[in-house]
Specification:
Length: about 450
C-alpha cells in the first residue's frame, strides 16, 4: 500500500447550515461530523498520519474531539479552503509523505471501497479525484441569461477525497500566486491551472457521499445514519453476555419478555421490572428503588432497557385528561425517570441505555395522538441524551419496532392478521444485538 498521509479539512464556518457552530462540530447519530469523517479514514489507514486543519478560534474544541485519534494532529487553517490546504502542505514539508489524501469533514459518508480505489489509483497517477456523473441539466449563466447548456454526459460532480503526490500538489501551490488560489474550489483545479496537461484520474464516487452544506442536508444525513444502523445482523452467533447484567423495564411481557429470555440464554444476569412487580415507571421513586435493587443484586448494571409503554386508541376528543396524562407519564416521563435514575450505574460500567419508540414517531397518527407524540419525543430524548452523556462514555440508543404482535397491540387493533406482524422475538433478537454496538445516538428501525 502507498506511503500516504491524510489532510482533513475542518476549517469551514458552516454559516449556510444556520447553526451557531461550524457544521463539522454538529452532532448526528451520537458523533460530530468531524468524528464520522475521521472514522472513515482511520478504518482504511489506521497507522496513517492525519493533519486536521481547524479554525483558529476553535482549536480547543477540535482538540477535545481529535485527541482520541492517536495519529492525528491539529493545525490552524487559512481563511479559504485553498489557504487551509496550503497550511497543511507547509506543515508536512519537514517530513513529507509520498502521497496525500485530502478529505472534507463535512462528508461523513465516505465508503471504504472508494478510498481503497483512490489509494490504488495513486500507484499510476499523480492526482486522483472522486466524482459522480451529473444527474441534472447544467446551464452556464451570463447576466441572468443562459449562455450555454453543456452536454450532461461529460459533466461530473466533484467530491472528496482528492489524492496527490505530495511533491506534485506542493509544486502547483508554489507555482500559483496567492491571489489566483482564491479562484479555485478544490485542489484538482489548482493542479490543472498549474499544468493544463495534468492527467487526473477519476474514481467514481457515491451519491451517499454528500457534503453537509445546507440545513436540509442535516435531515438527509440523519436518515443515512438511520439506514446504516438498520443493517445490524440479528444473528447472535458469537455475541457473549457472560459477566454482564441488565435491567429490563416492561420485561414481563412482549418484547421485554423476549429480550429477557434471549439475554438469560446468552449468559447475562437479568432483572425485570413492571407494574406487575410493583414498579410504575411514571413514579421516579419506584424507578430509583428498582435500579438500586438490581445494582445491588448483580453488583453492577451494564444495560438498562426500557420497553414499557402505554397505547390507547381513541380520538383525542374522546380521551379523558387522565387517559392522555397516563400515556405521557408512562411513555415520556417514565423514559426520563429511567434515564435519570440509571445514570450513576451506567457511568460506572460505561454501559448502554436502550429506549424503545414506535414507527409512529415519524408522523403523528390520527386515533392515537398522545401515543405518537410521546414516542416522537423519545427519539429526540435519545439523541440529546447521547450527546449529554458522551463524556461519561454512556451509550444511548433507541429501537423503533414496526408493527409487532404484542398484547398491547392486540388490545388496540382487533382485526389485524398476525401473519403481517413482527414477532416480539424477532424484534428482541435485533435489539439484543444492538446492545453490543459501540455507537450512541442511533435510532434503529426494525
Amino acid at each position: 500500500m502507498n506511503d500516504f498521509s491524510f489532510i482533513m479539512l475542518a476549517g469551514g464556518s458552516g454559516s449556510r447550515v444556520g447553526w451557531d457552530i461550524p457544521k463539522q462540530f454538529i452532532r448526528i447519530a451520537g458523533k460530530t461530523l468531524l468524528e464520522h469523517s475521521l472514522d472513515c479514514l482511520v478504518a482504511v489507514g489506521p497507522e496513517a498520519k492525519i493533519v486536521v486543519v481547524a479554525p483558529g478560534d476553535l482549536i480547543d474544541m477540535t482538540r477535545s474531539i481529535v485527541s482520541k485519534y492517536k495519529n492525528a494532529e491539529i493545525i490552524i487553517g487559512g481563511s479559504t479552503r485553498q489557504g487551509s490546504t496550503l497550511s497543511a502542505l507547509k506543515h508536512m514539508s519537514i517530513n513529507p509523505p509520498k502521497n496525500i489524501i485530502i478529505h472534507e469533514a463535512a462528508r461523513p459518508f465516505l465508503n471504504k471501497s472508494i478510498l481503497f480505489e483512490v489509494i490504488d489509483a495513486l500507484e499510476e497517477f499523480e492526482a486522483v479525484d472522486v466524482a459522480i456523473p451529473a444527474s441534472d441539466t447544467i446551464i452556464v449563466e451570463n447576466d441572468g441569461l443562459i449562455q450555454s447548456i453543456p452536454n450532461r454526459n461529460k459533466i461530473w460532480r466533484g467530491q472528496t477525497p482528492q489524492a496527490f503526490r505530495y511533491t506534485r500538489l506542493s509544486a502547483a501551490y508554489q507555482q500559483l500566486s496567492s491571489e489566483r488560489l482564491g479562484d479555485f474550489t478544490d485542489d484538482c483545479g489548482v493542479v490543472l491551472a498549474a499544468d493544463p496537461f495534468a492527467r487526473i484520474k477519476i474514481v467514481r464516487g457515491s451519491s451517499e457521499n454528500i457534503k453537509v452544506t445546507e440545513e436540509s442536508d442535516l435531515v438527509i444525513a440523519d436518515e443515512f445514519f438511520r439506514i446504516r444502523s438498520n443493517k445490524i445482523d440479528p444473528n447472535l452467533k458469537g455475541v457473549d453476555f457472560k459477566g454482564k447484567s441488565a435491567l429490563i423495564f416492561g420485561g414481563s411481557a412482549g418484547i421485554g419478555l423476549a429480550m429477557q429470555q434471549i439475554l438469560v440464554g446468552s449468559g447475562c444476569q437479568v432483572s425485570v421490572a413492571s407494574r406487575a412487580t410493583g414498579c410504575d415507571i411514571a413514579k421516579f421513586d419506584d424507578v430509583e428503588r428498582t435500579i438500586e435493587q438490581a445494582h445491588k443484586s448483580h453488583g453492577k448494571l451494564n444495560y438498562v432497557i426500557n420497553t414499557a409503554g402505554l397505547l390507547l386508541t381513541k380520538p383525542i376528543a374522546e380521551q379523558t385528561a387522565e387517559m392522555m396524562a397516563d400515556q405521557i407519564q408512562i411513555n415520556l416521563l417514565g423514559t426520563l425517570n429511567v434515564a435519570k435514575a440509571s445514570f450513576d450505574s451506567l457511568r460506572e460500567t460505561k454501559g448502554m441505555l436502550l429506549n424503545f419508540s414506535s414507527s409512529s414517531y415519524t408522523r403523528g397518527r390520527g386515533g392515537y395522538v398522545p401515543y405518537s407524540a410521546s414516542k416522537a419525543a423519545i427519539v429526540n430524548l435519545t439523541q440529546g441524551l447521547a450527546e449529554e452523556w458522551e463524556d461519561d462514555e454512556i451509550r444511548v440508543n433507541c429501537i423503533v419496532p414496526g408493527r409487532t404482535d404484542t398484547e398491547m397491540r392486540r388490545n388496540n387493533f382487533f382485526e389485524e392478521d398476525p401473519a403481517t406482524l413482527l414477532s416480539p422475538y424477532e424484534v428482541a433478537l435485533t435489539a439484543t444485538k444492538a446492545l453490543h454496538s459501540s455507537n450512541s445516538g442511533f435510532v434503529l428501525r426494525i
